[in-house]
Amino acid sequence: MSVHIAFETPNDIQEQVYEMVKSLGKDGRGRLKKGSNEVTKAAERGTAKMVVMAENVNPGELLAHIPMICREKEIPFIYVEDQAYLAEAAGMSLGTRTAAIAVIEVEKEAEDKFKEVKGHYETLSSA
């Protein structure tokens, strides 16, 4: 397990995370910040509602500080397996990868998916 991973996210929950990211990014039902630098800024400023990080980041130290900031600012965070799949779900061009995304805004149509994923974070992070 990489240094930035605080807990395991089961595959079925990862699918729900990808669906949430897709509805916010690709389908335009919210606003996202993409990449570790943008995510770090959003977390530090407290503007992130949730952070999604890829597990296959190399080196893992790239994201090691993000869970600490999220805990300090009480921002939920969760993991998915693949950077490329995360980038695609976020609506980035094909062949792009992103280590992390921050959810900044959630429109009404996507709120149910967002709340469901947030509930999984609360369960997983306290286990």
Structural write-up:
The structure is a single chain. The chain is α+β, with helices and mostly antiparallel strands and 127 residues long. It is globular. The mean pLDDT is 94. Helix 1 runs parallel beside helix 4 and helix 1 packs antiparallel against helix 5. It contains 5 helices and 4 strands; from the N terminus they run H-E-H-E-H-E-H-E-H. Strands 1-4-2-3 form a 4-stranded mixed sheet.
Quickly describe the structure.
The protein is an alpha+beta fold and 127 residues long. The protein is 44% helix and 17% strand.
Average pLDDT, to the nearest integer? 94
CATH C-level class is Alpha Beta
Neighbour order of strands in the largest sheet: 1-4-2-3
The CATH topology is 60s Ribosomal Protein L30, Chain: A
CATH architecture: 2-Layer Sandwich
Cα radius of gyration in angstroms: 13 Å
Alpha-beta classification: alpha+beta
Q: What is the count of helical runs?
A: 5
The helix/strand order is: HEHEHEHEH
